[in-house]
Amino acid sequence: MRFAFFAVIAAAAVAALGLGLAGFTWAWLAFPVFAFLTLLGIRDLVQIRHSLLRNYPVLAHMRWLFEGIRPEIRQYLIESDADAFPFNREQRSLVYQRAKQEQETVPFGTQLDVYKAGYGYFTHSLAPVHPKTDNFRRRVGGPDCTQPYDISLFNVSGMSFGALSANAIAALNKGAAAGGFAHDTGEGSISPHHRRHGGRLIWQIAAGYFRCRTADGKFDPEKFAATAADPQVKMIELKLSQGAKPGHGGVLPASKITPEIAETRGIPMGRDCISPACHPSFSTPEGMVSFLAELRRLAKGKPVGFKLCVGHPHEFMAICKAMIAQGAYPDFIVVDGKEGGTGAAPVEFTNSLGMPLREGLHFVHQTLIGAGLRERIRIGASGKIISGADIATALALGADWCNSARGFMFAVGCIQARACHTNRCPTGVATQDPTRQRGLVVEDKYKRVANFHRNTLHGFAEMLGAMGLDDPSQIRPETLHIRATDPTSILHHRLKPGQLFEEDCPVAFATPWNLARIDSFRPSDLAETPTSGPYAPSETHP
After folding, report:
1. Alpha carbon distance 523, 521 (integer Å)
2. What is the CA angle 79-82-84, rounded to 5?
3. If you write DSSP's letter for every residue of 37-61 in order, what string do you get?
4. How many Cα atoms sit within 13 Å of 500 on the Cβ side?
C-alpha cells in the first residue's frame, strides 16, 4: 500500500501515453504531468537522503511541501502536539538541525517559561574563555579495573536490535565509530550490525542474559567471558531497571523472532523470549555486588557497572552498604530517569513510576558522597538528554558523562510516528520489515549521527566557555540554579563526604539509610512478612 499512489501515477502515465498514440488529443495534456510524477517517484526510490521518500515515493513530498509554506506550519509538523510527546518542538528541531548541519539559531528569545517551577539556568561569566577542545572524555575504571576506558561526554544510550532495525543499529554504530564515542547495545545484546563497522560498544546485560545464557535462561560464565573478550566491547553494563518501565520485564513473541534475532540473543526459535523483571543470579544487595565483581573477573578487568532508574531510596543505599561491607565496588553507575522512552511500556509505567533524572541523579551522587564512595565510582546520566544545556545540567547534578537514545534516533530519521510496536515504522528505524528498512540508508544516516554528536558537544563547549570554564570537571552545583517551589525537595540537600555515618545527616537521607540492609532489598522495618492486618497473606491470596 505504501507504493500504491506511485503505482497509480505510473499506470496513469502509461495509459495517457497509450491514449495519446491512439488519437485522443487531450491525453497528451495529461501525459507530461503523470510522466513527471513517475520520474519523481523513481528518483525518490533511488535517493538516499530521505527515508520517507524512499518508503513513500511521491506521496511524502506533501510533508516537505507543507513544511516550506510557513515556518509556523513547519514547526507544527515537527511537533504537532507538544503535550503528547516527551520532546517539545524546539528540542526535536534542534536534533534535526544539528544532524543535518543546518542553521540552528533561534530568533525572538527563549521558548521556555522562565518563571515556571523546575526551570533551570546557568550563571555566566564576564570573563568568558574558549575551551581548547570539545572532544571531552572521562576515564572509567576503578582500582580493580585493569582495562579502563576513556568515554566520550556524550554517547548512544541502550537501544536493542529487535526494537530497532538492522539498518538503524548499523547507522548508529558507524556514526559512533566515526565520532569516537560509545554505543550501548541495549539488552538485546551484540548483533552482527553492531560489529559491522567496529564502533566501541557498551555491552548491556539484563535479566534475560542474552548471549550469555544457558538453555533455561540462567547466566553462563563461559559464554559471557567469550563475548566480553571482544576488543570492541569496552564496558559491561548490568541493567537493573530502565526509566520507561522500571520493575517490568519484557516478552518478545515467538512470531516476531527472526533467525538473526535468535542468533543475536542466544535463544531458540518458535518460543516466546522472556526477559524477567529481576535477575535470577542474585536476590540481595550483597549478592549483586558479588555478581558485579565476578563479571569484572570474567571480563579480564574491563569496567563493569550497573544501570538503574531510582525507586525506593533504601534499595540503592543497601547496595552502597554492601559495597562497603565487601570492599568491592562497580566502576560506574548509569542513572536513568523516568523520562526514558520505549515502544513497549504500559502507560501507567511511563507516566507514574520511577524517579525523574534530576532527582535520581542528585540522589545517587549525594549518596555516594555521603557514603565516602564517590571518588571510586563514575556516574553516567540517561533520560531526555539531547542538548549541550542538558549535558551541563546533568554534570552539575553529579554526572561524569551522558547518554542519549531518542536524540540519536531522531538523527537517523525517526519522526516520532509512534508506530514502533506495529512493525510499520515509516522511516525504517523501528521495524524488522526489510522493505521498510531500505528507506534508512546507513551510508547517509551515519553521517548525521556523527554530526549530531559533534555539534552537540560543540554547543556544550561554547556554553562552558560562556561560564568562564574550560573543562567540564569545573562545573559545580552552584553554577546551576533551578526554580524549585518545594522546600522539601531532595535537590536542596547536599552531603559532605562520610555524612551518612554522622548524626547531622539530613532526614531525607538518614531515614532510608537506616532502613537499608545488605542481606535484603526489603527495608529493615519490613524484614518479615506481616502475619496480620490487611496486607497479610491468606489461604485465598497467599
Report:
1. 6
2. 110
3. HHHHHHHHHH-SS-HHHHHSTTTTH
4. 26
Contact 497, 374 (CB under 8 A): yes
**CA-wise closest residue to 208 among 284, 277, 291:** 277
Give the tens place of pLDDT for each residue, 146-184. Answer: 999 999 999 999 999 988 999 999 999 999 999 999 999
Q: Which residues contact 251 (CB under 8 A, 6 or more apart)?
A: 272, 273, 274, 275
Boundary-marking domain end, from 32, 55, 78: 78
Going by their DSSP bridges, the two strands 378-382 and 201-205 should be labelled as unpaired
Residues of the chain with pLDDT under 50: 69-86, 527-529, 534-537, 540-542
Can you tell me the distance from the alpha carbon of 207 to that of 520, in angstroms, rounded to the nearest whole number? 18
Distance of CA 46 to the CA centre of its chain: 31
Cα–Cα distance measured from residue 446 to residue 224, given in angstroms and rounded to the nearest whole number: 29
Pairing of strands 378-382, 401-404: parallel
| Same domain as 205, residue 65 | no
Under 8 Å between Cβ of 322 and 302: no
Instruction: Decide which of 32, 48, 78 is a domain's last residue.
Output: 78
Q: What is the pTM of this model?
A: 0.85
CA separation for the pair 161, 261 (Å, rounded): 7
Looking at the domain assignment, is residue 131 inside a domain? no
Cα torsion through 190, 196, 201, 207, rounded to 10: -10
Residues 74, 173 share a domain: no
Residue 76: the pLDDT is: 46
User: How far, in Å, CA of 208 to CA of 217, rounded?
Assistant: 7
374: which residues sit within 8 A by CB, 6+ positions away? 365, 368, 497
> What's the CA gap between 123 and 483, in Å, rounded?
14
Handedness of CA 339, 343, 349, 351 (dihedral sign): positive
Buried b (16+ CB within 10 A) or exposed e, 469-504: beebeebebebbebebeeeeebbebebeeebbeeee
Domain count, the chain: 2
Helix (H), strand (E) at residue 156: strand 154-156
Q: Which of 379, 378, 255, 241 lies closest to 310 in space, CA to CA?
A: 241
Long-range contacts for 103-108 (Cβ within 8 Å, ≥24 apart)?
104/455
Q: What's the distance, Cα to Cα, between the start and end of the chain in Å?
A: 52
Burial class from Cβ neighbours inside 10 Å (0-12, 13-18, 19+) for residue 331 reads: buried
Residues 275 and 197 in one domain: yes
pLDDT tens digit string along 367-407?
A: 999 999 999 999 999 988 999 999 999 999 999 999 999 89
> What are the φ and ψ backbone dihedral angles of 267, each rounded to 5 degrees?
-125, 160
Predicted local confidence at residue 351, as pLDDT? 72
The region, left, alpha or beta by phi > 0 then psi within -120 to 50, assigned to residue 493 is beta
